[in-house]
Design goal:
Elements: H1 2-6, H2 8-25, H3 27-31, H4 34-45, H5 48-61, H6 66-98, H7 117-127, H8 131-136, H9 143-148, H10 152-169, H11 174-195, H12 198-213, H13 216-247, H14 251-257, H15 259-268, H16 275-284, H17 289-302, H18 305-321, H19 328-341, H20 351-361, H21 371-375, H22 378-404, H23 409-416
């Protein structure tokens, strides 16, 4: 029991219970606690651009061979687009089948517009204007402005170009690459410090929801959380399981091999916290260093399978909760925009709200202010997002390595079977 209370997950559970109690018995006070949830998300959001930059640049520069980067990169992008498209469609289908938001009857005009002001402003930078304007806004005015504005997609574009330039410099760029790697370690440690504030964020967000909308809102939100977890489980077992089987390996053996890292992600809701360990374990399996170094960091930005499910599921949930009818054109727009905006998120809590706001900003029919409804359960959905994203990226690395012929199959099977193997030789 003491270990549970001392764990981050245990403290989050206690904060959830306390938030429900405050919302039930002191609703006026509970509403005033909302800044705790907003502040926690803003703290995490401020690190996202720098983390994306460091992870992507180091992943590209670390390969050293742009021909291999190009070949593996193209195959990776094809894989990412196909698999994330399946995830997006799955989220839409389950939302319409189970209708988790039907019955909430929330009046969008009654929601506090200030609650999503910062998110809506940032989202409008991603999707304002027509589709051509959207593409042009992927290009920052300056490299610094992309970071200053917190525009994740612009940071991503700059990171890819910068990483390629470092790779072309070879030894002359080695010191910069090493510096970026060191900076990434500092950012991960900073993220770990902020994550410790999660119980306060959960307390404020859940207390506000219960105090503002009553305990009945938790039933609908609870259904959304359960449906999302079920969707991620279905996607991992069926879709990713099939991909692993086609690649010649077992998904469940891979999950057993990565059980320690998955446990850490479950507790921190951040796949960043295990990125070095994951890369080391995949290399130990017999996958070529350059393939791991490219696919994993790039996948952290481009291959967010569980996040893709979340985007479409949450968008339809908000429409249902606010009694907003959505047409087939709106659904196609959600899919089209989500294919782009889902690439600008990263596997840390908080970015989901910003990118979901960016998606909804392009669909005027759905009130973006409805994001306030899912804010209170975003932390718990973040657990499944981080786990699903991490598993998806590990499977992607194995699949692309098998596709490229960059994996020692005999060694990989031995490692996944739990057999002792000698130190890796590549």
């Amino acid at each position: 029991m003491l270990r549970f209370l001392n764990s981050l997950f245990g403290r989050v559970i206690l904060a959830l219970i306390a938030g429900v109690a405050v919302g039930l018995f002191w609703p006026d006070t509970a509403v005033q606690l909302k800044p705790l949830g907003d502040g926690f998300i803003k703290l995490i959001k401020m690190l996202i651009p720098l983390i994306v930059f460091c992870v992507v640049v180091h992943g590209i520069a670390g390969t050293g061979d742009l021909k291999r980067v190009g070949r593996v990169g193209i195959k990776s992008l094809i894989y990412f687009e196909v698999v994330t498209s399946i995830a997006l469609v799955l989220g839409l289908a389950l939302a319409f089948w189970f209708e988790p938001g039907v019955g909430m009857n929330v009046d969008p005009s009654a929601l506090d517009p200030k609650a999503m002001g910062a998110y809506a402003e940032n989202a409008s930078k991603l999707t304002g204007g027509g589709f051509s304007d959207f593409l042009l806004k992927l290009i920052p005015t300056t490299a610094v402005s992309a970071f200053a504005n917190g525009d994740v997609l612009q940071v991503l574009l700059f990171s890819i170009i910068f990483g390629c330039a470092l790779a072309l410099l070879g030894e002359r760029g080695a010191r910069v690459t090493s510096l970026i790697e060191d900076l990434s370690h500092v950012l991960f440690k900073t993220m770990g410090l902020i994550i410790k504030l999660a119980p306060l964020g959960v307390l404020g967000a859940i207390a506000f929801t219960v105090g503002k909308y009553g305990i009945g809102s938790l039933k609908q939100l609870g259904m959304l959380v359960v449906l999302f977890y079920a969707a991620v489980f279905l996607f991992v077992v069926v879709v990713l399981g099939l991909i692993m089987r086609v690649s010649g390996f077992s998904l469940f053996k891979l999950l057993r091999y990565l059980r320690e890292e998955l446990a850490v992600v479950f507790a921190t809701t951040s796949s960043d916290s295990v990125l070095p360990q994951i890369m080391a374990k995949l290399k130990h399996m017999g996958i070529r260093d350059s393939t791991v170094g490219l696919v994993i960091p790039t996948g952290y930005s481009f291959n967010l399978d569980a996040f893709s499910i979340y985007i479409t599921l949450a968008a339809v949930f908000i429409a249902q909760a606010t009694n907003t009818p959505i047409s087939m054109a709106d659904l196609l727009t959600i899919l089209a925009i989500s294919l782009v905006t889902s690439k600008g998120a990263h596997g840390v809590p908080g970015s989901a709200i910003v990118v979901l706001a960016a998606t909804l900003h392009a669909i005027p029919a759905i009130p973006a202010i409805g994001l306030v409804l899912v804010l209170s359960v975003d932390w718990f959905m973040g657990i499944a997002r981080a786990l699903g994203n991490l598993i998806g990226n590990c499977v992607a690395t194995v699949a692309i390595a098998a596709w490229e012929g960059d994996i020692d199959r005999e060694r990989a099977h031995a490692v996944l079977d739990g057999q002792a193997v000698p130190p890796q030789q590549q």
